[in-house]
Amino acid sequence: MLKYNICFVKRGNEILLLNRERSSWMGCWNGIGGKLDSQETPREAMIREMVEETGIEEYDLHFKGLVTWSGDDFDFGGMYAYVAEVPENIEYATPKKMDEGILDWKKLEWIMDSNNVGIVSNIRLTLPYMLKEKGCYDHHCRYENGVLMEVLHKEISVDLEMISERREQYLRSYTVKQEVSSKLK
To answer: What's the whole-model pTM score?
Structure first.
């Protein structure tokens, strides 16, 4: 099972981002989220993280798939990806200092600007799918020496969020690929 979740809170043309004060991605703007507790479903964990990290309690939460990763210097990992839509007129003043870092609303144009080096490297390639596509995707990020080399987008079933057996079966395919790859090295 994946250990983490991430959520992009959308208010009109803005996304609530967190400038992280801890690893991973320290100093970069990212979605909110965290680690799943042992008995939580991905959705339960995301709901808990929303309250803990933002205090926002009224939103429409949409499962958007997975962001997975592999690299030459670390093992396979990933997180469950969500978009939480809040009303455009919600009052939520930022910047706001939290335990994890600083929360702030950022315009989509600013997030997607290719000159913006302060955004986590895969967001420009995954966020458009999460915001515009109706389906769920596994956005698999492949890194070499810590640099994002490619993101492969594969449509997956929405059932992966709630049906743990289907999720585990799907994620096992990465374990098999990783075992084969390490035997070839």
So the answer is: 0.92
